[in-house]
Amino acid sequence: MTGLSGTDLIAAMSALGAGIAMLAMIGVGIGIGFNAGKTVESTARQPEAQGTLLKLMLIGVALTETAGIFALVVAIMLLFANPLI
Amino acid sequence: MELGPRVIFSIGPVDVTETVCFAWLVSIVILIFAYFATRRMTQVPKGAQTVGEILVGFVYNMVKDVMGDVSEKYAPYIGTLIVFLGFGSMLGLLELRPITSDLNCTAPLALVTFVLIHYNAVKAQTARGYIKELASPYAFMLPLNIISETIFPVTLACRIFGNILAGVIIMSLVYGALETLSEMLVPIPLLQIAIPLPLNFWFDMFEPVLQAYIFCMLTMVFIDNGTHPVESD
User: Fold this and answer.
1) What ipTM was assigned to the predicted interfaces of this complex?
2) Class assignment of domain A6-80?
3) Partners of residue A59 in chain B, C-beta under 8 Å
4) Which pLDDT value is given to residue B2?
């Protein structure tokens, strides 16, 4: 095996880490799906409240998404602006 | 692969990047539109005035729905935010880099929102009531509440930044792949003609509007929460 420098190892592990960081999207997907499903249920029960429900759903989706966005920012930092290299 | 905005020119130690130049561009375009929309106003609107009235009416209605009777005070700020962030994120349609794909653009706006929320909260419930609200329901919750209050502008800035930057990365990957593929077939950029259109629609039109709307919505909701605290006993 040829010599593997420390920087190479850090780069490889950073790429792996970026992939692992994006696993947070599993939870975000479940959360947003739950949110949208409940909104559809409520709209079916009470169609005249659709406008309010849509607004509430968007706020809920935005707040749920935050965790995923943090994971994305971490992954992008690991790939393009790595502080370790 | 370089991801950050390019530096257009430098004045001494200060780098003027693409973000700053395109923000000027967006501001100038909005100013010119506002000038032409309000130059010869008539009772029955026509032309640019109609578009302006629809936009302003939409913003005022949206703010009124959330904030109630104090909405007139905040509507100009919310309108500025939604127009600037919306058009700034749509720059991808013109093959320019969206200004909101730079954290330096979104963080100051989130900071302005943060200051607005807490200034209004202190003004509405006095300094004593504000601290009492932070230390509710129990005194040992104070550090946790402070953390959750300070993390809010960070999430606000990162949300629109992350979404738009992800769009920029995906669009550049798609265009790169299509360029390579079409060079294999014929020496003209044939495949880039209509194939990226749905992605363009999603990342350069729908996503900016949604993210600008969410930014404004959260700003309004949190200002409203600060000024009308939930009664706790």
Assistant:
1) 0.80
2) mainly alpha
3) 214, 217-218, 221
4) 67
